[in-house]
Amino acid sequence: MKISIVGSLDFAYEMKEIAEKLINLGFEVDLPPTAKMILEKEIASEQIKKEKEDGSFSQRVIDSDAIRRYWKIIQNTDAILVVNFDKKGIKGYVGGNSFLEMGFAHVINKKIFLMNPIPEIGYKDEIKAMQPIVLNNDITKIV
């Protein structure tokens, strides 16, 4: 099974750790391109945070066509795994981009896995409607 990992870029290092575990379990794994850039030290995560704070991150997304690039990656996988750890005081945080990617996966009938339970956020019902499989932080439940 081929899995695309999605989640906040704040979780890039956790994504890498999870990807390595999945690979050891026999899965093929894709990471978000910007997360790869952070992991390969092409850009510092602090720079991404700064861009998000000052509003310039959207230009990076536009210039790299990141949304369409990851849409194409999701099309060529069997499932997505949303790495949703605690962030901004929200347990199991799912941000806007991850929510968008969940929508992509849902529309094209890909399995959606959540590392942790659905967060208490304004679009909780929409996440529930996509029927994700909650792993409770146990990737061995991926089937």
Count of spatially separate domains: 1
Q: Given the helix and strand composition, which structural class is it?
A: alpha/beta
Shape: globular
Helical residues, percent:
40-55%
By CATH reckoning, the class would read: Alpha Beta
Please summarize the sheet with the most strands: 5 strands, parallel
Number of helices: 7
End-to-end separation in angstroms reads 8 Å
CATH architecture: 3-Layer(aba) Sandwich
User: How confident is the prediction overall: mean pLDDT?
Assistant: 96
What is the chain-wise order of helices and strands?
EHEHHHHEHEHE
Side by side, the strands of the main sheet go 2-1-3-4-5
Please mark out the parts with pLDDT under 50 across 5 or more consecutive residues, or reply none: none
**Total strand count, please?**
5
- Predict the CATH topology: Rossmann fold
Strand content: 5-15%
SSE inventory with pairings:
Layout (H helix, E strand, L loop, with lengths): L1 E6 L4 H13 L3 E3 L2 H7 L5 H10 L2 H8 L1 H10 L3 E5 L12 H12 L3 E4 L9 H6 L3 E2 L9
Parallel strand pairs: 1-2, 1-3, 3-4, 4-5
Helix pairs in contact: 1-2, 5-6
Q: How does this structure look, described?
A:
The chain is an alpha/beta fold. The chain has a single domain (2-32, 66-141), classed as Rossmann fold, CATH 3.40.50. The chain is built from 7 helices and 5 strands. The protein has helices at residues 12-24, 33-39, 45-54, 57-64, 66-75, 96-107, 124-129, and strands at 2-7, 28-30, 79-83, 111-114, 133-134. The model has no long low-confidence stretch (mean pLDDT 96).
